[in-house]
Design goal:
alpha/beta, Glucose Oxidase, domain 1, 2 domains, eight-stranded mixed sheet, seven-stranded mixed sheet, 15 helices, globular
Length: 379
């Protein structure tokens, strides 16, 4: 049985917080006392966010990297975007262990990258053959692919390139993995269908309510009216806050997540006319900003020569990148997807700005000076 803390409304996992000024009085010390560090942001709903948490709070990551990040905080901000926070010391430990492998163990580095390539091929095969996995199988595969196909090459790639050179085989393997991230496909083609089949089999809630359920709840069949209540809160404009520490979980909703974020991540709200990042690919252009904060681009109208501003990029955004005059992201390093593909497309690219998606707005006229790694607001 999952362990939950009671907060407010008549459910065992959540509360409605319409008065964010009082949030600090209501949230427990498990959240308020932690030195949270922003890790990454992704366009995930609550279900997808709970799966994302499993990548880091798992036996698999402990076996691979010698660290298990069992304390996580996720704040939906803006709507539809989950900001992922971890305890600073845990992130530092993970980085250190990845760095040690990349710098001192070429054999293991190559082995992990080869496993990532093999897992990607398995995913392609499963998708093409329309394989139907059970929920536990799909989750295990998702974690494995995340570790060796995304997390390790993401953080080890630049270290490997500096140590062994751009033309080394091990660097090329890391680049290939970073250019072909498969986690969006795993979610949409394998994991989500598996979860919906499991919900239909259990018959406790409609499969349409999947975005509001935690992966643990589905695995244990521990669901009820609380899931429908979450949907009502979300539909009413509230954003979720999800905290996880081992078996202890809190799901709560608020209309004002920014009031809470100002306390744990104040730099997010800095107002600037100049944004600095890292050069992903050289060049200088002027254009209008177009924010893309989703992996589903089917309904997005992106005009030629607009500036693509995103948290990060992945293969699903390639058609938009092709149209863009330049690419600007919150996250990433020299071997991130945005940098690799921008170099191939010969487009100016600035990565790792941390705040671009929060400072810039659709239609803003900006100069992207990728030679200097600076985005300047014109008007």
């Amino acid at each position: 049985m999952l362990k939950y803390k009671h907060y407010g409304i008549n459910s065992h996992t959540q509360r409605s917080d319409h008065d964010a000024k009082n949030m600090n009085d209501k949230l427990p010390p498990q959240i308020l006392s932690v030195n949270w560090q922003h890790y990454l942001s992704r366009p995930f709903n609550l279900f997808e966010t709970s799966v994302w948490n499993k990548w880091y709070d798992s036996r698999e990551i402990e076996a691979l990297l010698g660290v298990r990040l069992n304390k996580g905080l996720f704040v939906e901000y803006p709507k539809g975007m989950a900001r992922h926070y971890r305890e600073g010391s845990d992130i530092d430990a993970m980085y250190k262990n990845i760095k040690d492998i990349a710098e001192t163990n070429l054999t293991l580095s190559e082995k992990l990258l080869d496993q990532g390539i093999e897992q990607n091929e398995k995913i392609k095969k499963f998708i093409s053959e329309k394989v139907e996995l059970e929920i536990n199988e799909a989750l295990k595969l998702c974690i494995q692919v995340a570790l060796v196909g995304t997390i390790f090459p993401y953080f080890a790639g630049e270290i490997i390139m500096k140590k062994y050179g751009e033309e080394s085989l091990v660097t090329k393997k890391a680049v290939a993995l970073r250019a072909t991230s498969y986690y969006p496909k795993i979610f949409s083609e394998l994991l989500i269908p598996a979860a919906k089949r499991e919900l239909s089999k259990q018959g406790k809630i409609s499969a349409d309510l999947l975005p509001y359920a935690l992966i643990d709840e589905i695995q244990k069949g521990d669901m009820g009216e609380v899931i429908e209540e979450r949907k009502k809160l979300s539909d009413a404009g509230n954003n979720f806050i999800y905290f996880n520490e081992g078996d202890f979980r809190i799901v709560t909703y608020t209309q004002n997540p920014s009031n809470y974020l100002k306390k744990i991540d104040p730099k997010l709200f800095d107002t600037k006319t100049e944004i600095k990042g890292i050069t992903g690919n050289n060049g200088k252009v002027i254009g209008k900003v177009r924010l893309v904060l989703t992996n589903d681009i089917s309904n997005i109208i992106f005009n030629e020569k607009e500036i693509l501003v995103a948290v990060s990029t992945n293969p699903t955004l390639a058609p938009i990148m092709q149209k863009a005059a330049a690419v600007v992201t919150d996250e990433g390093g020299s071997l991130c997807h945005a940098a690799i593909i921008s170099r191939e497309m010969k487009k100016p690219c600035i990565i790792g700005t941390k705040i671009a998606t929060h400072v810039l707005k659709d239609g803003d006229l900006v100069e992207v000076d990728a030679d200097k790694g600076v985005v300047r607001m014109i008007k």
